[in-house]
Amino acid sequence: MAVIKPVVIATSTTPVASGGAIGTVVTPATTRYFAAVAAGDIGATTITIAATSFVDDADAPVVTFPTLTASQYFNVYVNGMLQQSSLSTISTTSLVLNTVDISVGVPVILEIANFANAVSTITTQSTISTPVVTITT
User: Fold this and answer.
1) Is residue 15 in a domain?
2) How far is CA 40 from CA 47, 67, 99, in A?
């Protein structure tokens, strides 16, 4: 005996989302460190300023710099002027300036901005339509 299978053809509409809103609050945190170039910082091709040469905004000595994450960036100011990012590198122990053309005693400011404190919340729920399924034979 042969098996007879029914054939069913169905179509449906795609659900559609409408409305809805997401609110995002970003609370950046900025930390600044201050130092002056010392004679021992100037090398043959770079100036390396140890983290321990810096003080923070509260004039407290710095032991190490934070390890930067993807949500952070740093700026370097030499004698009050913002420098190109390609001219410096930072590690937890030092700031390296790719130059030797800075005199002893010139102030250097390291600024680290942190944007990790971002919070997103759904302020208005979206409406999603129900798909319509149509069966034809």
Assistant:
1) no
2) 9, 25, 14
Three-state secondary-structure class, residue 113: strand
Domain with 108 in it = 29-121
- Note whether residue 116 is domain-resident: yes
The predicted structure's pLDDT at residue 6: 79
Q: How far, in Å, CA of 76 to CA of 90, rounded?
A: 10
Task: For the chain, list residues with pLDDT below 70.
Answer: 1, 137
Residue 135 lies in a domain: no
| Helices and strands (DSSP H and E) totals, the chain | 0, 14
SS3 1: coil
| Domains contained in the chain, number | 1
How far apart are alpha carbons 113 and 91 in whole angstroms? 15
State how far the Cα of 107 lies from the Cα of 105, in Å rounded to an integer: 6
Whose tokens are 């399924």? That residue is 133
